[in-house]
Design brief:
Blueprint lengths: L2 H11 L5 H12 L6 H22 L12 E8 L2 E8 L3 E3 L3 H14 L26 H7 L30 E3 L3 E6 L2 E6 L4 E5 L6 E10 L3 E10 L14 E10 L5 E8 L1 E8 L2 E9 L1 E5 L4 E5 L3 E4 L7 E2 L5 E4 L6 E9 L7 E6 L4 E4 L3 E8 L7 E10 L2 E11 L8 E4 L2 E11 L6 E10 L5 E4 L8 E8 L2 E7 L3 E7 L7 E8 L2 E9 L2 E11 L5 E12 L7 E8 L17 E3 L4 E7 L3 E8 L4 E9 L5 E7 L2 E6 L2 E6 L5 E6 L17
Parallel strand pairs: 18-20
Antiparallel strand pairs: 1-2, 3-18, 4-5, 5-6, 6-7, 8-9, 9-10, 10-11, 11-16, 12-13, 13-19, 14-15, 16-17, 19-20, 21-22, 22-23, 23-24, 25-26, 26-27, 27-28, 29-30, 30-31, 31-32, 33-34, 34-35, 35-36, 37-38, 38-39, 39-40, 41-42, 42-43, 43-44
Amino acid sequence: MNKNEENFKKAFDKIHPSEELLKNTIEKATKKKNTNKIFYLVPALATCVAAIVLVVNLGILKPKIEPEIIATKEETDVNNEVKEEIKLDDRLVRFASADELKEKIDELRKKEPRTNYFVDSNTEMALDAVDATGTASASAKSNAGEARTQSADEASSNYSTTNVQVEGVDEADIIKTDGKMIYTVSNGGLYVFDKELNLENNISLRDSKINIYFSEMYLTSDKIVLIGQKNEIQSNNEMRTYYTNNKRFTHVMVFDKDTLEEIRTVDVTGYNINSRLIGDNLYFITNESSYNFYYTDEDYETEYYTPKFSDSITGSEEKELAYTDISYFKGCKSISYTNVCSFNIADDEEVKIESLFGAGTDVYCSQNNLYLINTNYYYGDNDEIEIFKFKLDDGNAKVVAMAKLAGSIDSQFSIDEYDGNLRVATTEYRYNIFTGREKTINHLFVLNENMEIIGQTEDYARGERIYAVRFVGKVGYVVTFEQVDPLFVIDLSDPTNPVIKGELKVPGYSTYLHPYDETHIIGIGNNVEPNGHGGVHNTNMKMSMFDVSDLENPKELFTIDIGENNYVYSEIIYNHKALLYDKERNLIGFPLEDSHSGFVIYKINEDNFELFASNFERGYSDIERIIYIDDVVYALGYNKITSYDLNTMEEINKYEIKNNGYYERYYIDDVVE
């Protein structure tokens, strides 16, 4: 029986037809085309109509996936006190024992065998590290007392902040400034500079067996929070080892901003996925395989465990979550833990961990809720996302609801919370069982606080996929692309009835949308040209100003081409944190790789983008971020930071950041205990 016959049989099994009807229908649907096309035209059309009805009724090409409510919250007022109770339905369960966890892992491992035999990129980082106690090296501490201090009036009132999605919800980045000093995470360590780029302090942590690599940071009025990866390399030299899951932790360290004295260290099992800082409450998410895996010539060795953590605020002892503290959703297919961890960086309460079995990777966070998004890609079937909602309450994160939606998201900007409702833009890849081909359609869903769909758009932009999304109040902007760039303007004033009000088609496409004011939005992306095979390919970049004052008639007011060849590239294409934006001075800029490496800054005028400043250098300097303090712009590359006069672009100072061996490559066979 071929693939088409199998699909039809599965479909008919759901409606229990007679054997004769099943046989006749399969024969008609899978019969090869006859050369006499006219003779078979009528029955072929009839068969197609019947098949379409069957497919729609059985949900093979599902127009949408209804949400699954996993949990709801009830609030009751007793003696003027609010009592919160989470009522979970039977799809969210907790492991009752170690044996139950092992059975689940074995079940999933058979469905999804691992084929990776080498240490992955996270373990291959050559790393500066800490000593076995997890404390800073003596050199870092000895320099801490010499950290430069400044009075408040020395600080600039005009300086960069990280470009974030939600106001009041900070996102970690590799460089931050408070207008007095510049703090950057580079090559795995922290470097602190004054405004003249004099190195005031740095944290470089080393140990022979414990490797720590800081990748991002937060900056508050009095603290620095570093987030990175901690790997404890293990090896069994008695057997031929090609792959091992070494002990990996997301490593969080909190320091006093002025003295760099260490305040706190928190380790939680798994890779760092993402994080947010709301006030002094830090929320970070880790993900880790649920078993250690060793490959030998003879057999597989497996060690089962639950997430581990330690918090120096309560001692150095490593703790382990109980099996009964682990939740999972029936039908999950991932062999991993996702841990939503939280603590207040200003108090001494132990880190809290909400652990789910296979929960998600992408993150959107509002002031009140955090959402984890897990995308399930099914070969030969429709893809879908699972959205897990966590209620944030003064440093606590508790799972309260879950929904499934058709399609996949483009980025965190595909999701937005407004007036208690969640708006989600997705692209769905639909598999055609007759042709074996995929097609795309796009959706915009509105979900209420219980994660129930209360509104959605009609399917739009068939054959295209979403490249950029931005929600601004009661309006959503969605960019799709195939040959040209349609910008859709969606009215969300009635959440139960989102309506596509306007559409604008222009050459190229945008991958990032940035609000300029209430009636204008900036799009940054690529130009395209025909590739000679019926499609298109990217040329240089472009930036456009869109007038959206009339929702039904959006306009491209002006645009500018960026770069001179087909190889121009900027991190802003996929990372919003690479944007420099100064609304007061109408400046917008970002790093740029063309024939040389550098950055560009534009002045936003009434009728054009005017090149305000730029700097490019020969060689590979790989500029990752540009920030400013007053009239000085700082360009951070992977191996140096340089300052320039913003008005003349004359170089002021430069500091070379040494590699320190972070990118040496290690294999497990080379590690000796």
